[in-house]
Design brief:
Blueprint: E1 12-13, E2 22-23, E3 28-32, E4 39-42, E5 48-52, E6 57-62, E7 68-74, E8 83-88, E9 98-102, E10 117-118
Length: 134
C-alpha cells in the first residue's frame, strides 16, 4: 500500500555510465520540478500522490473512492509551485478524466488539506497534461 512507502525505497543504484545516476521509486509517473529540487509521483495503485523535496517524502493527496490520479506534471515556473494531475475512474476513453491543479503543493503538510482545483469538465478524457514554459 502507498502508506508504507519509506525513504529507504528511494534508493540509488550504480549506473554503468559514469554520467548517469539511477534511482528507484515505489510508484509511477515520476516528474521533477523544473529546477530539479522536487520529485512527485503516484503510488502503483494510482490513489496517492507523493512529494519528495530532499528533506522528506510525504503524501500530498489521496484520491477518493473510485477515482484514480495519474500523470502529474509540474508548472514550469518554479515560483508557482503548482502540480497538475489527471483524476478519474480509469484510463478508459469511455470515462470522464479531468485535469486538476494543486497550487502551493510543496507547502501542503497533510493529505486532503491542499487546495485541489478541477480545471476541465465534461464527458471527455482529458488525460496527460503538459505545461508551457511561458
Amino acid at each position: 500500500s502507498g502508506d508504507n512507502i519509506s525513504t529507504q525505497l528511494l534508493g540509488n543504484f550504480q549506473s554503468l555510465l559514469p554520467d548517469v545516476e539511477l534511482f528507484r521509486l515505489p510508484g509511477a509517473f515520476p516528474t521533477f520540478s523544473n529546477d530539479g529540487s522536487k520529485l512527485a509521483f503516484v503510488d502503483n495503485e494510482l490513489k496517492t500522490l507523493w512529494l519528495a523535496d530532499g528533506k522528506e517524502l510525504r503524501i500530498v493527496y489521496k484520491a477518493k473512492s473510485g477515482d484514480k490520479i495519474f500523470s502529474p506534471v509540474w508548472n514550469q515556473d518554479p515560483n508557482k509551485d503548482t502540480l497538475y494531475v489527471c483524476k478519474g475512474p480509469s484510463f478508459s476513453s469511455r470515462e470522464s478524466v479531468n485535469i486538476c491543479a494543486i497550487p502551493k503543493v510543496s507547502r501542503s503538510r497533510a493529505p486532503q488539506q491542499c487546495e485541489f482545483i478541477q480545471l476541465t469538465e465534461g464527458f471527455f478524457n482529458n488525460s496527460f497534461p503538459s505545461t508551457n514554459p511561458d
